[in-house]
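Protocol step 6 of 9: fold each sequence in the batch and record its structure tokens directly after the sequence line. For illustration, a two-sequence batch is reproduced in full.

Sequence one:
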Amino acid sequence: MKYAQITGWGKCIPPASITNDEISQIVETNDEWISTRTGIRARRVSHVSTAELATVAAQNALDCAGLEGKDVDLVLLATCTPSTMVANTASLVQKNIGAVGAAACDTNAACSGFLYAMQLATAQIRTGMIKRAVVIAAERMTWYVNWAKRDSAVLFGDGAGAVVLEASDEPSGLLASKIGCDTEDRNILHIANCGTDLNKYEPIGPSDLMFEGREIFKRAVKGMSQACDDVLSQAQLSLEDIDVLVPHQANLRIIQAIQQKLNIEDEKVMVNIDKYGNTSAATIAIALCEAVENGLIKPESNIMSAAFGAGLTWAASYIKWGTRVTPINPPSASLPPCDKTGLELIAHSVAACKEA
């Protein structure tokens, strides 16, 4: 049986940021209000497109794996903020990294997107349909934000992460997974003013990210916890077998609730929401990279990951890390310089939202 081993990992973090103190210049809030309710202290704002974020993360993952784009059979991009709908954004990433002839596809499961994409790519490798895939999660969530609304304006950020999956005889990679969708209350988390249900001949105003925080909290904790239980059962593992928890970085309170339900110690949990905010599908991809970089993930670590997003999608995965935790080659890709601050990058959008 073939497995889909993770052999490369890479990320792309935009340089411009907005701190909680800075965002208080836009909406009525302060650092204490944001940090105590969410765990967020800053978020990044991209000066480039989703495709560019994804390209940098993918190239750095390929460098890490010691591969070139031409070695790849599939480029799979998880995003709910594509640069273009038609053609798909993955096709531009495929072109940018030189993955000539590789299949290229976008997938949208919102915040659960990276784990959904991991399962899809892993299945193709394990059935022998392909040998190598680059799985990317990239988001420009700040593009959707209505800066006149405090509850959503403080939450989201931009960024990208990626992994390279390769066929291997070694039992590693994604070994158990549970994905699903609870559509009963899908309207508690959605983006208005976007999509072909709209009348394109009428002005629609700025996009608006709508969510009901308390209900989302309850459903997120329940959905992710149950999915983790299913995955542990599939993998025939106990909670004591888990070395690292890499959860979706949406809210520190949700992370802590999942941690408590799984009875996992603080030192085993990857948390970076304080630096980046909620980057939707990209949160787990970025957190996975940083967990390797900071030594939290070690050779042959047992990793549990869980996510919850609009739809209401949910996912949990058990990942067995391989033996290598250092890149074969250093990252070669980076974003072009940014000569603006985070506040300067969003100034036009802020003005438009306040006028709407």
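Sequence two, same batch, same settings:
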Amino acid sequence: MLTLRDCLDYCSLTEEEIGLLAEHHDLPAEAAGLIACSLSQSDEGIVVLTNWLLEIAERAIEDGNAAKAQQAHEACKRLLADHPLRAPDNAGS
């Protein structure tokens, strides 16, 4: 069984960033970590995680919480740097 630490190492998010996702989805940190770990295995999952982090940042801005918004934006940047999305394969077109 994966620990939260294993998930953090695999998905490139910090414990605080997993906490943002957990809070956003009203989940325990361990569950959010497992979801992030699973999603980070595919480009589609990275897009989902990125969208969630951008939603968190947007809500934080609406709530006047600039620090939380910055944290979510930085997490998004790091996630995309560590898990770059591949260009679609257009060989079949």
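Proceed to step 7 once all outputs are recorded. Observation for sequence two: The mean pLDDT is 87.
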